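User: Hi! I have a protein structure encoded as tokens and I'd like to know what sequence might fold into it. I'm fairly new to this, so please keep things simple.
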């Protein structure tokens, strides 16, 4: 793919080069940077819209501030691709989200310019305040800047941090990147003028600022001056939530106009305003993308695409995704049961609930990036006889764990958790991998955890949970396409905790959980080719699990291999505890567990991640073969 012509960007090796540029050259740098981001993401796929929206802001920050001495913290990291290009990583930018390449998010181990790693949102203000206080304690004088999107401001953690920062004296700059509103040109220009004025020297009274503003306008523009004075009065008198929380509030200003951005940032750099400051910057998500139409979410996340035509290059195959199967099943159930409602935490399309929004308007609730609230909100619905499905990615459900324990599990409320992106997630890496939910859910009393092996099983399990009112429950399923099995027209209501035997043998039992079944089937076929007699079992449920089936497997086999795509401490740990306490290991049964390793798994293609973790068919076959040999030798010695 031909890269765009970028003569000025080609001269930038780090941010010292950005600071050395005259202001008149920054517009060209921003235009070339935007073209370079588009070209890179066209080759790699990834988060595009947010980065395009902060091109000018990124250039301005690195031109004005002495990074990396001055700390710039990008919330979530979706918007950090331009930042990576300007901070010495341009040569690696086409390795984004690939094995051994750049992370799709900020990452401390990747660069000194990434002072804080981020995969979940709404952490930047808390982290920035910590850095600012540490700076003060050490007697240093660098700047700390947290850049947070308006969507991230919907999380309670952001407001906890604002409340704390506003009550302290530490110098902290928070830039609110607002890409969900627009400023009419006259208002935008006026706001920029006022922002520059009040950031250049603090006014200790409303009267002082109003007098200064009025003196700048001749009588013939009295109407405009009056509007300016009203805006000035609102800003200084604290007529904003941020002012009430103790921040000096500047803006809104046009985040794409360098002539508006640079003066304000310079004033803040030079200490004209002390204490916590919030700068409200308005941007357009996806600004400058040459194509229109394919994404209603402004190119938030895209696959690879043709940079000439805009055509998105999607993976071949027509197998439905687990997400879409869940969504279609839930819509069918909800159309018949008016008590079924659904909750999403700012991910309606990612979880498939946008389909239910259309089919059952008024019964899907998007609460924003607020997983804690989402869980307890669902609990409240359940107390009134509704059947809530909280569809939340595994990694994001971690943020609502306290509520899951105290507000749902302790009260034994029938909240259903649809846990998307369970297991490894490929290019999104460690921050987004859903590898801990089996461990953090299976330790909770009253919890039912369904783990479908394929998309047909997902239909049955979603149907089962919709009918289950006995307490909290969850169904966990991976990202991406299903296996291609035929889908039932109607789901069956399964017996909770009942597993299934797919093939019978005598030598070794393979006990699989969830979508690892397809790998276990391949292992079983290879063992059978070697003359080893295999029982293949699908646990179906991580909790409660099928104790009758486990007793049978333990008493009729020499060896057992338990396979799950989750961290240690999950399903396998529960099974081992059961086998030990029931005395089922006392007669020589050899058991091994295959889980994810005790480490965070970096971004790579998902199949490659399974290989690195020892959960691929080849490695599991080798482990099973060795286990069978050990069990046979042990049995021979006993004889």
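Assistant: Happy to help. Inverse folding works backwards from shape to sequence: for each of the 639 positions I chose a residue that suits the local structure. Here it is:
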């Amino acid at each position: 793919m031909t890269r765009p012509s970028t003569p000025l960007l080609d001269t930038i090796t780090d941010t010292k080069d950005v600071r050395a540029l005259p202001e008149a050259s920054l517009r060209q740098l921003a235009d070339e940077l935007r073209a370079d981001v588009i070209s890179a993401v066209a080759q790699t796929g990834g988060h595009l819209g947010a980065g395009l929206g902060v091109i000018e802001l990124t250039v301005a920050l690195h031109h004005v501030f002495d990074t990396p001495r001055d700390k710039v913290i990008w919330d979530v990291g979706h918007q950090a691709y331009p930042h990576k290009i300007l901070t010495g990583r341009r040569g690696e930018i086409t390795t984004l989200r690939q094995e051994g390449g750049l992370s799709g998010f900020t990452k401390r181990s990747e660069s000194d310019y990434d002072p804080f790693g981020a995969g979940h949102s709404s952490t930047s203000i808390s982290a920035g305040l910590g850095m600012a206080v540490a700076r003060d304690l050490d007697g240093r004088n660098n700047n700390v800047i947290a850049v947070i999107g308006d969507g991230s401001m919907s999380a309670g953690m952001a407001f906890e941090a604002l409340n704390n920062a506003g009550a302290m004296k530490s110098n902290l700059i928070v830039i609110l990147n607002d890409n969900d509103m627009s400023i009419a040109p006259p208002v935008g220009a006026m706001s920029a003028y006022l922002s520059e004025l009040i950031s250049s020297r603090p006014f200790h009274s409303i009267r002082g600022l109003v007098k200064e503003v009025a003196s700048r306008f001749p009588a013939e523009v009295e109407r405009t001056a009056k509007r300016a004075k009203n805006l000035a009065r609102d800003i200084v008198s604290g007529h904003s939530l941020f002012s009430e929380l103790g921040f000096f509030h500047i803006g809104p200003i046009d985040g794409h106009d360098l002539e508006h951005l640079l003066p304000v940032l310079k004033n803040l750099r030079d200490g004209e305003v002390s204490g916590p400051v919030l700068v409200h910057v308005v941007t357009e998500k996806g600004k400058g993308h040459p194509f229109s139409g394919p994404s209603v979410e402004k190119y938030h996340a895209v696959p690879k695409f043709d940079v000439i035509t805009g055509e998105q290059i999607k993976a071949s195959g027509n197998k439905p995704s687990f997400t879409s199967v869940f969504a279609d099943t839930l819509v069918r159930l909800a159309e018949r049961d008016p008590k079924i409602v659904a909750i999403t935490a700012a991910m309606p399309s990612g979880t498939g609930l946008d389909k239910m929004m259309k089919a059952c308007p008024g019964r899907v609730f998007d609460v924003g990036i607020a997983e804690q609230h989402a869980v307890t909100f669902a609990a409240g619905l359940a107390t009134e006889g509704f059947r809530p499905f909280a569809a939340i990615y595994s990694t994001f459900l971690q943020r609502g764990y306290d509520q899951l324990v105290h507000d749902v599990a302790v009260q034994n409320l029938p909240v259903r958790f649809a846990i998307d992106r369970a297991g490894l997630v490929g290019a999104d890496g460690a921050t987004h991998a859903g590898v801990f939910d089996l461990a953090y859910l299976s330790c909770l009393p009253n919890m039912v955890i369904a783990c479908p092996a394929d998309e047909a099983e997902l239909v049955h399990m979603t149907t089962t949970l919709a009918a289950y009112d006995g307490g909290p429950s969850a169904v966990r399923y991976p990202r991406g396409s299903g296996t291609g099995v035929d889908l039932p027209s109607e789901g069956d209501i399964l017996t909770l905790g009942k597993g299934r035997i797919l093939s019978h043998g005598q030598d070794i039992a393979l006990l699989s959980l969830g979508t690892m079944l397809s790998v276990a089937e391949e292992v079983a076929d290879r063992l059978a080719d070697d003359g080893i007699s295999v029982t293949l079992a699908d646990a179906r449920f991580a909790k409660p699990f099928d104790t009758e089936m486990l007793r049978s497997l333990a008493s009729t086999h020499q060896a057992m291999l338990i396979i799950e795509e989750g961290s240690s401490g999950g399903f396998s740990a529960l099974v081992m505890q059961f086998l030990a306490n029931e005395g089922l290991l006392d007669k020589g049964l050899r058991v091994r567990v295959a889980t994810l390793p005790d480490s965070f798994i970096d971004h790579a293609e998902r199949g490659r991640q399974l290989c690195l973790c020892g959960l691929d068919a080849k490695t599991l076959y080798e482990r099973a073969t060795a286990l069978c040999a050990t069990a046979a030798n042990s049995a021979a010695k006993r004889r």
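A useful reference point when you look it over: The domain at 322-476 is CATH 3.40.50.970 (Rossmann fold). Feel free to ask if any position seems puzzling.
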